[in-house]
Amino acid sequence: MAMITADPKDVAAGRVLRVHAREPRKVKRLRRELSPGRQASAVISVLDLAQRQQGWLPRVAMNEVARILDMAPIRVYEIATFYTMFQLKPKGKYLLQVCTTTPCWLRGSDAIMKACQHAADGETFSVQEVECLGAA
Q1: Is residue 71 exposed (0-12), middle (13-18) or buried (19+ Cβ within 10 Å)?
Q2: Scanning 44, 48, 89, 94, which has its CA 20 to 30 A from the CA of 59?
């Protein structure tokens, strides 16, 4: 199983994101709390709401977030693809995140990654390469 990355063909063209009834209130509250011209500061929070609704972030959801926050879609894509907390493809019920940076690789993360990839079926388990989660 490959890493979870953006795919421009993830959703049929023309599909519209349906927002749950309570979510527009959250978005309005987030926008109200920000100074005029600073609505983009809410992008992570609104992306999180969209991901909780969908289970992942299809392109139409990112486009809707851009529309809601009056941002260029590319700015939303940049944020969604930068943070590993956002899933750009459907994932299994359990997401296995494995650090493969040098310190973890020296401790055997490559073997762990191979085992996780072997177990990943996309429905029950998905695997994702991440930066170190144990660094503290």
Answers
A1: middle
A2: 94
Q: What does the block give as tokens for 81?
A: 């693809």
- How many residues belong to the chain? 136
Cβ proximity of 53 and 23 under 8 Å: yes
- Residue-wise pLDDT for 55-113, tens only, equals 889 999 999 888 888 889 999 999 999 998 898 988 888 888 899 888 898 999 999 99
Asked if 57 and 50 count as a contact pair (C-beta separation under 8 A), the reply is yes
Residue type, 35: S
Residue type, 99: C
The pLDDT tens digits for 37-47 are 777 788 898 89
Enter the tokens of residue 9: 């063909």
